[in-house]
Amino acid sequence: MADVPDSARFDESVRLLIEGYGFISKRCKALQSDVFQTRLLGRRTLCMKGEPAAQLFYDEARFTREKAAPLMLQTTLLGRGGVQALDGQAHRVRKRMFLSLLTQSGIDALLAQAEREWDSRMHELTTATDAPIDLFVEVQAIFCRAVCAWAGMPLRSEDVAPVRADLASLIDGAGSVGPRYLRSVIARRRAERWCGRWIKRTRAGEYVPAADSALAVISAHVDANGRPLSVKTAAVELLNVLRPTVAVAHFVLFCALNLRWHPEWRDRLVEQPQLVEPFVQEVRRLHSFFPFAAARVRQTFSWQGLEFKKGRRVLLDLFGTNRDGTLWADAELFRPERFVHKTPGAFEFITQGGGSPEEGHRCPGERLTIALLKLTTLKLVNDVEYSDHSLPADIDLRRLPMLPTDRYLIKGIRASSTSVHPD
């Protein structure tokens, strides 16, 4: 049995921080192998990319998510005790809770709320001064108001800014060190306490949300062990509804930027709005939220002549798989046409995980993400006109999560004279 190729003799944690999204793919190319081992944070770690590797990675018989996520993600982005760290029956039962919220009717209701919030805010901005606004922050606030109302937790106007800031910080600080990480840890604690208060009031009967709301469903959920969630775990799972919805603003930002970087697509979407889904899928392919996913080997096994030892941490390169030249022609280029006649496989396009959302670790909110992106992209194309105050020219792929090298500021927002939407 062959040894897994080794990328370095010493710990490469600093190199990971320096190289960011390209860390795994760069070494796969140098070693001419889609699997290699290295040392990260003092631990032996296997890294892999590609469709076969993704199919292997999401095999629950061989890998577990328990204790796989780095501590810095548990204390910021994910929280502790949430669905991402579960496997087997416990994972399936908890996942069904989320899927019950994200039925087509649930998605439609959240989309309608998001559209109301978008239209209201854009109307406000058309009557405001011509001062430049940060599109990313504005979209975060719109989605924050929308998802909180949909979840049964409507925000007072004075609460929108601090709640948005906390939810955004959970995302922004997860892949960092230093002050950004510390702000994220503090935001996690504050957000869990805030959600915990909603859970307690609901369980005590002091507040009665709609029966099908996220707040009501999570408060009443009975886990695989036959017991309700603790207040802390329920708060974590409530944040697992709110935070990812606000995080969709990340993709909206890149949709807006690609409309500027590739202006021919703005014209095409006006004339052929049905192409909006290929457009947003290409944005999602190129602009993965995080570079990799983590798991641990459940039991020692061999694959393609390589040994995977029990307990070894494994990282799957989401970013690199989405840009794998063996899967995608002209993989580094922005070409939405690729999605017109192609439906990628469940382990080929893995921005939000691989496999099935019902049975595997693919994000249950992926359909919602795509729907929100289609809605907001067509809003940007058809419903409003604006000019660029500052247009970033590049992306910082060393930053986790990736963002443009500068803020995208727009100004002069005004209603468009035409509005076209797909059937």
Automatic annotation (TrEMBL):
GO terms for biological process: sterol metabolic process. The keyword Transcription regulation does not apply. GO terms for molecular function: heme binding; iron ion binding; monooxygenase activity; oxidoreductase activity, acting on paired donors, with incorporation or reduction of molecular oxygen. Heme binds at residue 363. Keywords: Heme, Iron, Metal-binding, Monooxygenase, Oxidoreductase. It comes from the Bacteria. Signal peptide: none annotated. Its cofactor is heme. Belongs to the cytochrome P450 family. This is Cytochrome P450. The lineage of its organism: Bacteria, Pseudomonadati, Pseudomonadota, Gammaproteobacteria, Pseudomonadales.
